[in-house]
């Protein structure tokens, strides 16, 4: 293969040429704390929660995958729109998230159950160490857009997070962004 450019639009998050993955509320309803609020919203429609646009890179050792993520502004109950979150199948692979637009939080958890929540705003380059699960949250009123780079053969394990959740949640309380312990978190034994 030959070197090539893709073009990233910092305002829309569009990455061209790229492959788009769309996550609507109906696809990701299980990720929210308040299931009744999610079902009530779904009766009114099926909003876009986030999109990921991948550069076309072979999923092979030696390559670097890269993509943009656009998380739309919104909440389910008190909880801000967020990504499903995952571990890499190859656990010992790191990642970098570079924020282009908006305001967010990056929630990360280590296998020992430590949890870190970093702010995301234009210019933050967040390092996700190997073995840490990760998920991002849009806490603002505009789209949260960030650019990610990770080993192309890392793979994504969503099932573990679907079972355990994350130790912390990001909510809006009295107009403030707050980080709370997740009462539904199930530490892995
Ligand atoms: C990111 C994420 C992206 C969407 O590119 O895949 O933000 O989040 P979910 O994959 O959890 O739905 C990344 O961490 N790649 O490894
Ligand atoms: Zn990742």
TrEMBL record:
<comment type="pathway">
    <text>Carbohydrate degradation; glycolysis; D-glyceraldehyde 3-phosphate and glycerone phosphate from D-glucose: step 2/4.</text>
</comment>
<keyword id="KW-0479">Metal-binding</keyword>
<dbReference type="InterPro" id="IPR011051">
    <property type="entry name" value="RmlC_Cupin_sf"/>
</dbReference>
<dbReference type="GO" id="GO:0006096">
    <property type="term" value="P:glycolytic process"/>
</dbReference>
<dbReference type="InterPro" id="IPR051610">
    <property type="entry name" value="GPI/OXD"/>
</dbReference>
<dbReference type="Pfam" id="PF06560">
    <property type="entry name" value="GPI"/>
</dbReference>
<dbReference type="InterPro" id="IPR014710">
    <property type="entry name" value="RmlC-like_jellyroll"/>
</dbReference>
<comment type="similarity">
    <text>Belongs to the archaeal-type GPI family.</text>
</comment>
<keyword id="KW-0324">Glycolysis</keyword>
<dbReference type="InterPro" id="IPR010551">
    <property type="entry name" value="G6P_isomerase_prok"/>
</dbReference>
<dbReference type="GO" id="GO:0046872">
    <property type="term" value="F:metal ion binding"/>
</dbReference>
<dbReference type="GO" id="GO:0006094">
    <property type="term" value="P:gluconeogenesis"/>
</dbReference>
<dbReference type="GO" id="GO:0005737">
    <property type="term" value="C:cytoplasm"/>
</dbReference>
<dbReference type="GO" id="GO:0004347">
    <property type="term" value="F:glucose-6-phosphate isomerase activity"/>
</dbReference>
<keyword id="KW-0312">Gluconeogenesis</keyword>
<feature type="domain" description="Glucose-6-phosphate isomerase prokaryote">
    <location>
        <begin position="22"/>
        <end position="181"/>
    </location>
</feature>
<protein>
    <recommendedName>
        <fullName>glucose-6-phosphate isomerase</fullName>
        <ecNumber>5.3.1.9</ecNumber>
    </recommendedName>
</protein>
């Amino acid at each position: 293969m030959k070197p090539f450019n893709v073009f990233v639009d910092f305002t829309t998050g569009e990455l061209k040429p790229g492959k788009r993955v769309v996550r609507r509320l109906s696809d990701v309803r299980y990720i929210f704390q308040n299931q009744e609020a999610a079902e009530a919203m779904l009766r009114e429609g099926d909003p876009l929660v986030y999109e990921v646009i991948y550069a076309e890179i072979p999923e092979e050792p030696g390559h670097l995958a890269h993509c943009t993520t656009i998380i739309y502004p919104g909440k389910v109950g008190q909880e801000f729109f967020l990504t499903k979150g995952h571990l890499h199948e190859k656990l010992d692979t790191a990642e970098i998230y570079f924020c282009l637009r908006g305001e967010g939080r990056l929630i990360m958890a280590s296998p020992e159950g430590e949890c870190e929540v970093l702010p995301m705003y234009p210019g933050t380059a967040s390092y996700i160490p190997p073995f840490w699960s990760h998920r991002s949250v849009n806490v603002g009123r505009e789209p949260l857009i960030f650019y990610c780079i990770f080993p192309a053969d890392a793979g994504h394990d969503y099932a573990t997070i679907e079972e355990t959740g994350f130790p912390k949640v990001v909510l809006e309380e009295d107009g403030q962004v707050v980080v709370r312990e997740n009462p539904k978190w199930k530490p892995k034994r």
